[in-house]
Amino acid sequence: MRFSIHCDSFRVIAVGALLVSLVAGSPYTNADGGPEDHSFELPGIDDSVVKLTRRSASPVNVIFLVGTECPLVKIYASRVSKTVQEINRSHPKHSPAVRLIGLCSTVQDSIDDLQAFADDQQIEFTLAKDFDGSVGKRLGATRTSEVLVLDQDLAIRYQGRVDDEYEPGVSRTKVTRHDLRQAIDEILAGRPVSVPVTKPVGCLIGYATEGPVTTELTYTRDIAPILDRQCNECHRRGDIGPFALTDYAEVVGWGPMMVEVIDEQRMPPWHADPKFGTFVNARHMPDSEKQMVRDWVDGGMPYGDLTDLQKETSPASLAIADDGSEWQFSREPDLIVSMSDHSFEVPADQSVDYQYYVVDPGFKEDTWVVGTEVQPGNRSVVHHCIVFIRPPDDANFRGVGWLGAYVPGQRGAEFPEGYARRIPAGSKLVFQMHYTPTGTKQTDQTRIGLLLGKEENVTHEIITLTAINSEFEIPPNAQDHAVRASIRRLPERGELLAIAPHMHLRGKSFRVFAEPIMSSPDSHASDNPSSSEILLSVPHYDFNWQHVYAFADPLPLSSVDKIWFEATFDNSSSNPFNPDPAAAVFWGDQTDEEMAIGFFEVSIPRQPIAQRTRTVKAKSDSPQLNDEERRRAKQFAEQYIHRWDANHDGKLVSEELPKSIARFGMDQLDRNRNGVLETDEIERLYQQHLKKPASR
Prior knowledge:
Largest sheet: 9 strands, mixed
Signal peptide: 1-31
Keywords: Disulfide bond, Signal
Shape: globular
Protein name: Redoxin domain-containing protein
Structural class: alpha+beta
Organism: Roseiconus lacunae
Domain EF-hand: 657-692
């Protein structure tokens, strides 16, 4: 017996095929051209029997395809149930006007699995188990979370998705078409369904099929090690992957799905172009391993010899306890800080804005951190978390204050010997939380663990610098709008350790360049890709995956004049993430606004050579400004101050700026380090912008 079942992670939903053609020969009709009889009688949970016949049918009957591990089923189960309940309340004369049945045709889900699913998801509608898959096949169903709407004669009037919120790899910010509700309303009103077929999304139903074994590859010898290297960081019990790939019985079910997401380059989740840079945390899957997975799945997915299976596929240092409480350090953390003294409640099926928590751990003196790990309290809902250092206003502190981060599949980090990050005395920590719902209400209380070191042992201080552009405007319907920013105040003896790009829903691509120091004193760095080295290229930026790209070999900065990036944005209707193509888009904290930021992890030697920082080239090295350009710079500075100056005192402090600029841009804007932005500082920055060649 060979099983085939496909399913998707929450952010990587597979493309559904158009199921039914409204032409002669459709499975909706029998050989005589009349409505096909879609009645059935199946076992349900709690030893019940679920029966649907023309005699027992309601005016409208909704069949919701269920798979207990499909993330979209968990999202849509409560949504479909609420829709049916609301419609029934609005049609009190019928009892009920709409009947809802959850049909499970996946071969790997048992009655016990359905019962546990009903309990966990608080399911209130009927669940039926289609053991041999005959009912699902007769209905033409292919994916879990698919819905079929049948009339009282059990003729299929609608088949496809619940609504348009999700597509493969896409989660829209709002629903623009409620397909299921629209179909039900039209049937109850006696009208034809205006859109009778849509593409379903979700998990491909695992129907049992017969097939011979035609490959010598085996799970135990060949496939399990690949899954351990490429998948099991997330797809294991207790982690954010919606199903585990650590057991053969599960892997066989997901085999074809693995091929699909590998071929579409959606898994493993990694967005850096392999032609540029070598990264220690890369999830790039070699072509040879991709082909082995394809051949094994196509060849029948044989198990192999048990003695070939490694007893411990994951290193002990990476093992996670069932409750997720194990730390990934070589020793227990010296300090553990929670995001709050109470948990955050994640709603069942609603999108959640970024949450911010400010915590005062009580740092009485400068503290040196040699290892960090952000540990979610509930890995199933924490998509990512970033923890920042917020130093006191009078602290001698450079950089944005990045302390640590969690994204699925990335673990705790211990710095190399002699490397550490400084937390100034009196600093607070800021937790930035991004949550994803799972279909039921959940709670989370994320925390960070710190390994502390002694100052006398620190040879290199790690800081985070930012390149930021907050003064852009993305025109409506612009498909490829470029925004640039740079850093030129680089530590002369420093090394670049890692890069983290950040944009929002309209982010399209992100490239980072290193501009070399020009040999000629008359040369001027011009943000020219032809004269720069590409350090990182992310051709298909995905807001849902906030990667930190850590170099395998740190880049010495002694010969680098500046680091700059070019980010492109897609504000057109062809971007499925786009909340509103007709809107002009500016910098802002919310996801329907935009950001253009590059975070750069840099190490600076502390001894024996003191930190030295190059400054921007002297005026003689760059073009001079004319009177009109100086006037424009002054006008821009005045407008910038006026835009945010809440107390009208002619200057800006952090509290008056948007949170994102205060956190990420203050280091670049506040040139005299007095904690206040004044007109002359903004004016000088704009003058430097004007001095750059027009090709910028």
